[in-house]
Amino acid sequence: MKFASLPISQLIQTPFACDCGRTHLADIRQVCIGQGVTSRIETFLAAQPTKGRMLEKALDELLIVCDPNTRKVFGDTLTQRLREEGWKVRMHCFTQSQPHATMALAQELMEDITSDTGLLLAVGSGTMNDLSRYASYKKGLPYYIIATAPSMDGFASTVSPLVVDDLKQTFEAHCADCILGDTDLLATCPDRMLAAGLGDVLGKVWSIHDWEMSHQLLGEYYCPEIAALMNQAVARCKGAVPGLQKRDSKALEQLMEALVLAGIAMAFAGNSRPASSGEHHIAHCLEMQSIFAGEYGELHGINVGLGTLVMGSLYRNFLACTPDKDKAIAHAKAFDWKDYQARMEALYQKGAPAVLELEQKEQRHDPHATIRRIESYFAHREEINQGIAQAVEQLSGCGELMKSLDGYVDFGPYPHSKKLWKAILRDAKEIRSRYTGLQLMDDLGLLEELVEKTVEEFWRG
């Protein structure tokens, strides 16, 4: 069934029997994006189930979740508004001005949820959403996300990425019952957060490409309709950039909708495949380096945006190469576990045991598995290279779009050395068991050579 052109209101809570052979469903009660939509919260609360019954003012406490910044932006206003409407309201405001979504903070939030709590209202963006999603899921409660910036694609996600032992891990959770994107509120966010949202959307070009490539080479499940949904969202956001610069309400709505559509696409696919690939692996690895250094680091979407441009460089340079099948097979057979272990320990530090355990489980670098992938590439080489060229063209000019919103287009703003950048681009793929362009280049024995070229292109030391 064709659904790529449908509005969000028709994509949620509706099963779609798709030509891909699966039935897709995004189980989200409400998505409300536009000017002044936070004024409708009371309407949604009046029809909100909790604990097997309807939410009631006399019985249920509303717990507002925020940090010091989002409290000032809307947390205090929301608290006052709901109290005036007769609701019992309490606030959990994290003390950190820029908190990371860690398991420790998720536990802190869960400990503050009482038997009176009926609903969590997360005010913020990525971190508040991830923490509230996980804590509410564990406590069996619904939650809303009231976006203060269109800066990331997890608004409609059903999983929570949390940092445990310095490694970002993904945990089962549930989707928000209500997603509110008030463009009046979104318009107050800094340019950098708009760049982050745009970067997260642009990254879907590689997510979709790599997903289809994995389908072609390895037989992974793939849905062209979900891919079309994401590609249309990317196209709309590219066209919205001039409006974003002016804080135009319609442009903000388009960006927010695209970010929500990414979550719907993930729900339809049953995993994050339509929204995350090599560009996200690079971003996750960058975020871990900041955690190791005891710093907040850059916004996730800023890192994804840069990762998207980096992947474009790697792929362009790949198309200029002539892969040699015999050399690729020899490279696969030369895999050295001790060398691999040392690299993982150097790059991932406390997170290295989990990365090594993943490789031992998946055996992605087993020579027999690698050679099978090499054989498949050479059997499908023409269509794979054609797909890469199309994706590269799709992202043409996106560096300027990112730059116009204060996004990053080179390595200059980061404190990392050339050596660390090379390690990140070479081994970021090890953080997830997912076939991406980084894995293709590594399988063919070309990754280190391509990384050298791309690091020189992006280096501004």
UniProtKB/TrEMBL annotation:
This is Sn-glycerol-1-phosphate dehydrogenase. Keywords: Cytoplasm, Lipid biosynthesis, Lipid metabolism, Metal-binding, NAD, NADP, Oxidoreductase, Phospholipid biosynthesis, Phospholipid metabolism. InterPro entries: G1PDH, Glycerol_DH. PANTHER family: GLYCEROL DEHYDROGENASE, GLYCEROL DEHYDROGENASE 1. Signal peptide: none annotated. The keyword NAD applies. GO terms for molecular function: metal ion binding; oxidoreductase activity, acting on CH-OH group of donors. The keyword NADP applies.
